[in-house]
Amino acid sequence: MPRAAPAAYDFVVVGAGTAGSILAQKLATAPQKYSVLLLEGGPRTDVASAAVPQRIIQAINTPGLVRNVCPTGAAGCALDWGFTNVRGAPLRFAKHTGGNGAINGAQYHRAWISADLPFIASNEGPDGELGGGFGMAPNTFNISPRARRATTYAECVVPLLAKKASNFKLITNAYVTKIDFEQKGQAKPRATAVRYLNSSGKEVTVNVRKEVILAAGAIMSPTILLKSGVGPPAHLQDIGVPVVADNAHVGSNLRDHLSVGLNFKFKHGNETYLDAVLDPTRAKLNQELYKKLMLRSEPCCAQAKGPLTTTGLPYTVHMRYPGYMSGGKGGFIPDGPNIDITFRPWRRPEDGAKAKCVYPCTGFDVTISLTQLEGAGGSVQLASRGAAAKPRIAFSSLTAEADKRVLYQAYVRIRQVMQQQALASRTVDITPGPPITSYEQFAKKKVTGGGSHAFGSCALGTALDARLRVKGLANVRVADASVMPQISVRPQASVMLVGSVAADLALQDARAR
């Protein structure tokens, strides 16, 4: 019996995360009724299954629950890609619908605040399609008016599925392994199909009429391109992958916001948000308060109650050190902040171990992050030619002298703040290791990125052109955190914007053909 011809779609979007979900929704709801296939490597997070039990869905949807959906380093976790860096340390990257936007701090930082971009209005505010600008604290969060975490998957894709839109299809547990190309004469190679492994491990091919758009994240988007023969020729030849397009910048410039932390506990047992969540005697009351809110019919949560309605990250301090990265090399965001300081209710055990904190847990961490880096970025490369082989991931580290000195200045500043009488009289520093009292001591610290804010590995201007198209290819775009060479704030809102812009660019080009 002859094999059935592969299905064909106008657009194939890879990745149902923060950018991919809003991108697929905008393509599928365009007046032209283009057919759209959204491929996701992991399972759905809106429908209970063996991989995603109801407790996980509740943890993802409830802002105040302490999420431990997939512990870092947990072997065989179906909700994580299981990546490690070149030193063997585990990295946490979500492998499910919603992506990292379903498990992060939900902070919504407007990196474009002075750019007057037209794409923002539809994304923001309680009446926007994402509920993005709505927050219950000085930090704004992706929390819906019903006090639920508002991921782009939940707000954009789930309604499409509910409507059973005939021109839209979501396939989960689809591990994309390769893009197929054809080339005619001197024309750029054109993507004709996408291959993926389904949940049974069987290879499936889908044809594409117009574009492939990679929104698989800062690790998987360059990995898919490299496996497809798009990248640095020398690296591809070493691995044994035939070169389709020479693009030396695919997989380069991998960056993260490099951080150092301080740990404190309260002297007199002051209570934090986390204690209110972890206290077993109040767990039932917290749930009742939250469920009552969820049953309300009012569109606004002005009367929301209980600790489960917020993420417990009430504010972030943004700082800029004048002169650092202002013009010249690395001056991509000359007016943006370069230091991000977050206070988080928590407390490490006093022996310095990274054990889970149990109630009572009265204390907090101070995380100091360098959000722009002058030093060189890291890389994503192939470790082998195998279709399911994991990539070789090397994050940037704190090597540039200018970066070290700026991060040290912020470290000293926080030390000074914590030594003020109002705080020193109430807190005890329990940061592991001997105190750092000089730049020479600080410069010896090993500071590397852990992937929480990974970006830059398919950057605009180098790997991509100004319309997010992969240089050297006719019809492949990238739309996720990997396109940003630098980002001076927490990236989630900017990644949403990238998805929205990419959809508009793809629709413009489709109408022009």
Description:
It is a single chain. This protein has 513 residues and is an alpha/beta fold. It has a single domain, classed as FAD/NAD(P)-binding domain. Helices cover 23% and strands 18% of the residues. The strands form four sheets. Strands 1, 2, 3, 4, 5, 6 and 17 form a seven-stranded mixed sheet that branches. Strands 11-12-13-10-16 form a five-stranded antiparallel sheet. Strands 9-14-15 form a three-stranded antiparallel sheet. A hairpin with a 7-residue loop joins strand 4 (175-182) and strand 5 (190-197). Helix 1 (18-28) runs parallel beside helix 3 and helix 1 (18-28) runs parallel beside helix 11 (492-512). 46% of the residues are buried. Residues 112-116, 119-139, 296-302 and 327-332 have low confidence and may be disordered.
